[in-house]
Each structure stands twice: as structure tokens, then as C-alpha cells.
Amino acid sequence: MLDFCRRPVAVDLFAGAGGFSLGIEQAGFDVAVAVEVDPIHAATHAYNFPHTKVLCADARKLSGKAIKEAAIQASGEIDLVIGGPPCQGFSLMGKRCLEDERNDLVFEFCRLVVELQPRYFVMENVPGIAQKEHAIYLDLINSELEAAGYCITQPVKVLKTAEFGVPQNRKRLILLGSRAGERQLEYPKPLIPNPQSVFTTVRDAIADLPNLDDFPELLTSDEVLLERRQLKKMRSLASLYAQQLMEASPDLNNFAYRRLSCGNLLTGSLRTQHSTTSIERFQKTLPGELESVSRFRRLHWDKLSHTLRAGTGSGGGRYTSPRPIHPDYHRVISVREAARLHSFPDWFRFHTTKWHGFRQIGNSVPPLLARAVGRQVIASLGIIPPKPKEPIELGNTQLLRFNPWEAARYWSVSSQGIVKLES
């Protein structure tokens, strides 16, 4: 029998800026609690999800009891636990390491699932966790959770984000678990059966966005108010995909709370100033090709973006991952353009610095992928969630401007080693 009366409750572990949280909310869940160790990312999550209790804490030092106490609206029952434990130790990109301390965080996810006893859980990770010497980790995870009374949906699958409407060539392993006595979860079927011929393109995602070089204020700020004519031009160029991210076209499958935001404010658009020699090299780089010096790849209007990566944190030397070159302009893409390629709506804001902004996107689960998985959980729960009628206010924009020490003070945590365990 279907339940029309409630929105189920979710908890997001290793929440980052909130890509997984957003997609799950769009599926119809209320995200009661989000756990994130990095104060900068926790502040960004708090800005975008003012209705969620954010715990800026190390998951290794957090108990399920503490999370349950924070989830006061859950009334003792948590329907879903989600999370993407940091994964660089498993990554196929760069050096893989069995001894990487981040590998152990997948077992902290398991521990908290066992302590919280949700009806369902979804864990996201890189495909490398299921390959070669790292496959032992996946076997151990399965054994630990099955021993705790959870049925793991088999075979474990790697999902392609392009098959769910994301204009990016990105693959993620998704682990689905159902508590004993619950209807077993199934993987979502692709919304786009053949992404090789029919998919959301780079053009669909960013062609309507204006040329940042036309706005001198974006040299010092990540936001600018667009004039009515500029906004009208954007909407005339926007694909259905872009219109839905702009909230200029209805999205019937979106059950998220509407955020009150300024519709003509372009955010996440701080300009990158390149040297003359870099610009000359970018000019010579053809769409889809790699620029040999910077190792930046130029996007192709009519294809998918390659995988957007986060780079490394301070523990790895604050390395910025190569950013794509715009298909037309001789510069790297902006944070907002990267957010469009990741399926974030335009109201969703990131830290005002490009370094943190790109890291937050690269570490996120694309919301459209998370939504597709979340809808499967909704179906297994037998719920048709109500669409929220009242919009909610976003948080204080100061949350997006903190430096690491200010963010640590805000959350009353230590600033030491803030980003060492990021994914």
C-alpha cells in the first residue's frame, strides 16, 4: 500500500558540499543530518541546506547515537543512509595505495550503518574499489554488512552518469543495501539507453551562459547581477536541461524544496586570468584535444565533458586538477560552468574561491545520478512523497567566504589537517 503522507528521512555521511544530499532531496527525501569533517565544505552544505543539521565532525569519532540525537525529526527511524567515503586510495587515476588511510573510511561508513540501522543504505565510490587488489575491500564491506542483517544488491554495479542525463563521462560504483524484511533495492534503469548517440552535451549545459570576460567585476568577485536583456538572452539560448537548472522550466520529477534565490544573480563565476602565452596555446588547442603544456583538455560542444576531478588537498600539496578549456573562449571553465556539467542547479552555490569551488564539485556525486538512485529507494519504501509547497531561504553568504581558520572557528573544531582526508 502506497504512503502519500510523508517524506522519508535520510542521513548523509561524508557529505561534502552536498551533491548526494541534493539528489536524494530531489527524489523526495528530507536530509535530516549531514556529516562532514572539513569546515569549509560543512559551511557550504549548511548554506545550501538550511533545513539540515550539519555535523562538522570526523566520522571515525562519531557514534550512531549522536547522529540519531541530531536527527530529531526522524522519530527513531531513519529510512536511508547515504555516503561517499573518501576514495583516492582506490582511484584508478594516479597512484593507488592499499595502505592509504582513506581506505579505512569505507568501514566507518559500514560501522555507522550498523549503528543507525536504516531501512536502506547507498554507498558511492570510485570503480577502482572493485578492481584488482582493492576488490578485497568490497568483499569485506559486503561480508560486514550482510552479517549485520543487510542484503546487498548483486551484482554490484558501476553506473555511468551520462545515462542519467549528466553531460559528463563519469563512472561511479554504487552499493545498494536493504535491511532484512524490506523490499530489496534495484538499480535504476538508464534514462538515456544509448548515451553514445543521445545524451546531454556540453552545449546543452553551458552554451547559454554569458562570456565572463564581458564583466570586469568578475575579476574580484564570483557574482554579478545580470541585466534583464542578458537574462532574456540566456533563456533564449538555454536547452531544456539548462532551463531546468535555471528553474525557468518545470521539472516534474524534482521533489526538492524550492530555494528563494535571486534569479538574475550569476554566481560561481570568478574569472581566471591567463598569461598571453597560455591564451595563445589555448587558441591552438582543438575541441577534445589536450593542451600539451597545461594538460588542460578543450571541451567539445557536441560531446560529453570528461570527468571533472578535484585535485588534492593540503596533505597532497594543494594540487589543482587540470580544468577543461571552454569550447569557444580561450580560458578554463568557471565554477558555475563546472556545476552545470555536474547537474547542479544555478541556485546552488559553492565556496567563492575557485580552488575550493572546483574541489567541491569534483568530489560531489552528480545530483541527477543521486536522484535516480534515490527514486529507487522511494519505490522500495512504497512512498509517493509530497512536493513541498513553501520555499525556504538559503543560508548566510558569509558561510561561502570563510577561510579554513574562520570556518574552523565557526564550527568550533581544529583547523589542523582539514583537507587531508578528502576524497
TrEMBL record:
Enzyme group, top EC level?
transferase
State the reactions this protein catalyses.
a 2'-deoxycytidine in DNA + S-adenosyl-L-methionine = a 5-methyl-2'-deoxycytidine in DNA + S-adenosyl-L-homocysteine + H(+)
Q: Name one GO molecular function term.
A: methyltransferase activity
Gene Ontology annotations of biological process type: methylation
Q: Where is the active site?
A: 87
What's the EC number here? Answer: 2.1.1.37
Top-level taxonomic group: Bacteria
Pfam families (alphabetical): DNA_methylase (PF00145)
| InterPro entries per record | C5-Methyltransferase (IPR050390), C5_DNA_meth_AS (IPR018117), C5_MeTfrase (IPR001525), C5_meth_CS (IPR031303), SAM-dependent_MTases_sf (IPR029063)
Q: Which keywords does UniProt give here?
A: Methyltransferase, Restriction system, S-adenosyl-L-methionine, Transferase
NCBIfam families per the UniProt record, alphabetical? dcm (TIGR00675)
**Which family does the UniProt entry place this protein in?**
Belongs to the class I-like SAM-binding methyltransferase superfamily. C5-methyltransferase family.
**PANTHER family, sorted:** CYTOSINE-SPECIFIC METHYLTRANSFERASE, DNA (CYTOSINE-5)-METHYLTRANSFERASE 1
- Protein's recorded name: Cytosine-specific methyltransferase
State the organism of origin: Funiculus sociatus GB2-A5
